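Appendix C reproduces, verbatim, an entry submitted by the partner laboratory led by Prof. M.T., so that reviewers can inspect both the input and the predicted structure.
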Amino acid sequence: MPTLHLIRYRDSRGESVLRLCEDATGLLVGPTDRRLAPAGIYVSNLQGEAYHKAACKVGDFSPGATVRLKREPENPHDPFAVAVTADEDDAKVAAYVNKQKARTLSKLLDSGAVLRAVSLRGTGQRTPCQQIAILAARPEVVAHLLSVRPRGLPKPAHER
């Protein structure tokens, strides 16, 4: 398992989000860190929320909420499109994985890989949402990342 955990964090706008934290150092790990993809961890700010306001407001995209990834190979704008919906059977598309990450995730999904995705940034149901960010990985990796950070590790840098 990666030596990382997701922790609650208040960003510069005061919004509660989830951030990756290195276990050994307590330092935050950015979404573009080159170590993530080789570990099978994919982080993406989503695109298109402004076009799907109703679905964003209805769905639960609060940090830690499970979301669904849905391939759209027939999408006229991008054959590698990966749509994101709330974790409900009849949920509408709320946004799309950005094109750079969509290419990688679409290939994984098309190959039959089982991925779990959770929201890192967003809002709960019935709340307008301007920006959603997600993390996707194998289910056991996501479960590990969401588990409580073990005691005795350095405090996350923002808590020092």
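The chain is about 15% helix and 30% strand. Additional entries are available on request from the coordinating office.
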